[in-house]
Design a protein that fits this description.
With about 100 residues, the chain is mostly helical. It is about 90% helix and about 0% strand. α1 packs antiparallel against α2.
Length: about 100
């Protein structure tokens, strides 16, 4: 019986760790994509309009708040998933003793 409880605790911790790893991966890749899109988009606009650094600088500066807002949105969504998983497991543990 103690082995089953130990496995449940490890399983719960593993789920949290995997969700946090997924969160960090999503944020890292998303930030990279936004910055690269801003850089290449700015370079393309500057080349076609003849305004050498201005669109690149503007889009790179504009990508900062976009990245931050998307990071916060993804983090809140992942934290909500973690809380939902915790509440489901705690309700399941409470019902085990009642049967």
């Amino acid at each position: 019986m103690p082995d089953q409880m130990k496995n449940r605790v490890l399983s719960k911790q593993n789920k949290k760790n995997m969700l946090l790893a997924a969160l960090l991966g999503q944020i890292g890749v998303l930030t990279l994509v936004i910055v690269l899109a801003a850089a290449f988009g700015g370079l393309a606009l500057d080349a076609s309009l003849g305004t050498k650094p201005w669109f690149t600088i503007g889009l790179l500066i504009g990508s900062i708040p976009v990245s931050i807002l998307l990071m916060v949105w993804i983090a809140r969504k992942t934290v909500a998933k973690i809380k939902a998983a915790d509440s489901e497991e705690s309700e399941e543990e409470k019902s085990i003793g009642k049967n």
